[in-house]
Design goal:
By secondary structure, the chain is of the alpha/beta class. It contains 6 helices and 11 strands. Helices cover 26% and strands 30% of the residues.
Length: 192
């Protein structure tokens, strides 16, 4: 059984791993994890016709959605990993490679780093600002609207680590690898 399934079950969810339209049409919530490149991720989504079903479910019907790592990035209007590619367009902005910020900064950004938030948000309920989460990425979302940003992380200056609007959210970190605080984020999402 894949790791992410176990964590969702531990947090009270009943996961179904799928790329089938019928399953997405019957979902009460959607967790969209991702590892890989923006261009290939969007190609796979479009070839399967999942962009339209996701739009209907999330934007029209209001089904809660959580994008994890690449899943967060695909919510943006455009990404540059693998060439310029249109994203889902739910969040204004682009996904670009980190700018090297000086000596000692490694790309990809892999490991534990703090997530700083200054506003109360249901996804981070019970998670104090400054807690460490586990990251693994070379690209980051650059938002057009600061109102979509829930939290930031100090690395290569600073990057967006949590996004949220209405019923859809994204985290750049991996909650399934982030121990108790990661489980708290998953539980918070499943409670929406």
């Amino acid at each position: 059984m894949p790791s992410r399934i176990f964590e969702v079950e531990e947090c009270g969810g009943e996961p179904v791993v799928t790329a089938r339209r019928e399953d997405l049409e019957n979902a009460h919530s959607i967790i969209f994890p991702g590892v890989g490149s923006f261009a290939i991720g969007m190609k796979n989504i479009r070839e399967r016709g999942l962009d339209e079903i996701l739009r209907r479910q999330v934007l029209e019907r209001g089904i809660p959605f959580l994008g994890i790592c690449l899943g967060l990035q695909l919510m943006a209007a455009k990404g540059w990993e693998g060439g310029e590619t249109a994203g889902l367009g739910w969040i204004g902005g682009e996904v670009k490679r980190f700018d090297q910020d000086g000596p000692g900064v490694r790309i990809p950004h892999v490991g534990w780093n703090e997530v700083r938030h200054s506003l109360n948000h249901p996804l981070l309920e019970g998670v104090p600002s400054g807690k460490d989460f586990y990251f693994g990425h070379s690209y980051t979302v650059r938002c057009r609207n600061d109102g979509d940003v829930v939290a930031r992380t100090p690395y290569c200056g600073e990057f967006v680590s949590v996004l949220g609007r209405d019923n859809y959210f994204g985290v750049q970190f991996h909650p399934e690898k982030s121990q108790k605080v990661g489980f708290r984020v998953l539980k918070n999402f499943l409670a929406l």
